[in-house]
Design a protein that fits this description.
Blueprint: E1 17-23, E2 52-64, E3 68-73, E4 78-84, E5 89-95, H1 100-107, E6 111-115, E7 134-135, E8 144-146, E9 160-165, E10 172-174, E11 181-183, H2 195-199, E12 203-209, E13 213-216, E14 229-239, E15 249-255, E16 262-272, E17 277-279, E18 282-284, E19 289-293, E20 302-313, E21 315-316, E22 323-324, E23 327-331
Antiparallel strand pairs: 1-2, 1-15, 2-5, 3-4, 5-20, 6-14, 7-14, 8-13, 9-12, 9-14, 10-11, 12-13, 15-16, 16-20, 16-23, 17-18, 19-20, 21-22
């Protein structure tokens, strides 16, 4: 009697999921590509540009809501052809870390920077009249912003700054490097010269102030400041329930292996859809924040997680022209069986 040889581990084991996002070019609707063949060049702790590490996530759920129908033929109406109905898929999870991008993705629409107010500014729910912007000078980079002499009187180590151009009655997508909002008309934003800096993703924390510049702790997400940019101090971030702008991002979710293989889920285009989440086969509303107990004490310390929900938008696979919502990649463990 023969016995089958033992099979190497074929079960991916992971503790948590990790999320990476990259902006979609909204003008051309071009996503950023994750090539599974180059996964070895994608270090999880230092992802390649333009991918951004948004930290660990929990309660990751994917749903595929595309029905499959059949065409029947013959006197007995036997099934002859199978086809897919309207394509739809969703992703839901909870961010365990808070930051500008995490809040923007969980909120779904325009995400605002609260600019430091002028001394006698009228209050506003997303920030009132801000203090004057400081012009950015030539020679600036994504990590060092040059302002000239006197910079220390405006910016201090530890402060946040928004760096972008003045609003000059342009319409369409605005925001250097990453589309942050869509302006339908100058009247919609009251021709506010500071509007783009209110919504820009080009935000950084000042790590050091020199005699003529500030050095940022992390490079600006939108890259080198555009010509004509200015900077203002940011006190906080605010998102809103509502708004007409829909964001789009490419997303990669990685179940990093504890033992065994690695699984990656790549979505070419995800649009935040926070109005509803998925539960079973239905679509339901859900709490926007969740308390997560940190210790079993009374009163228990708790962290707030950000709940996010996304609608998957299609991308085109250049290998065969098929419309695709998600790519699931499996990287087997060394010497694991193929099937």
């Amino acid at each position: 009697m023969s016995t089958s040889p033992l099979r190497a581990p074929m079960v991916p084991v992971t503790r948590q999921m990790r999320a990476y996002f990259a902006p979609v070019d909204r003008t051309s609707e071009t996503p950023n590509v994750f090539d599974p063949g180059l996964c070895g060049l994608f270090p999880l702790d230092a992802p390649p540009v333009p991918w951004l590490d948004l930290g660990w996530i929990d309660n990751f759920v994917r749903s595929y809501d595309t029905p499959t129908s059949i065409v029947r033929s013959g006197t007995k109406a036997l099934p002859a052809v199978q086809f897919r109905g309207p394509i739809e898929a969703h992703v839901d999870f909870e961010f365990r870390q808070w930051g500008k991008l995490q809040m923007a993705l969980a909120g779904g629409s325009e995400h605002m920077n609260v600019l430091a107010p002028a001394g006698s500014a009228m209050p506003g729910p997303s920030g009132g009249v801000p203090a004057p912007a400081v012009a950015v000078m030539a020679g600036s980079t994504a990590s060092e912003i040059v302002f000239g002499a006197g910079v220390s009187s405006v910016f201090a180590p530890g402060c946040l700054i928004a760096v972008d151009v003045d609003y000059q009655q342009q319409t369409g997508f605005v925001g250097t490097g990453i589309a942050a909002a869509y302006v339908s008309s100058p009247a919609a934003v009251k021709q506010d010269a500071n509007y783009i800096r209110r919504v820009t993703f080009n935000v950084g924390r000042v790590a050091q102030v020199t005699s003529t510049s500030v050095v940022l702790a992390q490079p600006l997400l939108g890259g080198v400041p555009a010509v004509g940019s200015s900077a203002q101090v940011v006190l906080a971030f605010v998102d809103r329930e509502g708004g007409s702008f829909f964001q789009e991002w490419s997303a990669l979710f990685v179940a990093e292996e504890e033992s065994g293989g690695r699984v990656c889920f790549y979505y070419p285009r995800l649009s935040p859809s926070p109005g509803a989440g998925t539960k079973g086969s239905g679509t339901v509303g859900f709490a926007r924040e969740e308390r997560v107990a940190l210790a079993k004490t009374q009163p228990a310390a708790a962290a707030l997680s950000l709940r996010a929900s996304f609608l998957a938008l299609p991308g085109v696979d250049p290998n065969d022209g098929q419309s695709v919502l998600c790519y699931r990649s499996y990287f087997p463990a060394e010497m694991a069986a193929v099937y």
